[in-house]
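This section describes the prediction task in plain terms. A model, or a person checking by hand, is given the sequence of a single protein chain and must write out its three-dimensional structure as a string of tokens. No templates, partner chains or ligands are provided. The sample shown here is typical of the held-out split.
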Amino acid sequence: MPFYTIIADYQDGTYVSQHTAENAKAAVLQWAVKGSFLIDHVKVTTKQLQRLREDFDREKPTAMEETVAVWCTGARLKRKYLSLTIVQTDPAA
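The expected answer:
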């Protein structure tokens, strides 16, 4: 199963996590379910986290032009933009 690195940019902070998933969207949904940096650093409520999960469930990450195995997606969170970059990586490298 593919391995993904997710880079989240939000409120002047960058947060990195890694997930094994079937595809980029599944990796984003795993990231949203875990939500640890959002709870610990951004102090989102359970309701805000659920809304974010629903937003990501509706959207398919967009493949970035002129790259291989790199996608992006994002959503509004607490009136600011949360940007995710998803990179399919090789955990053995």
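For orientation: The mean pLDDT is 86.
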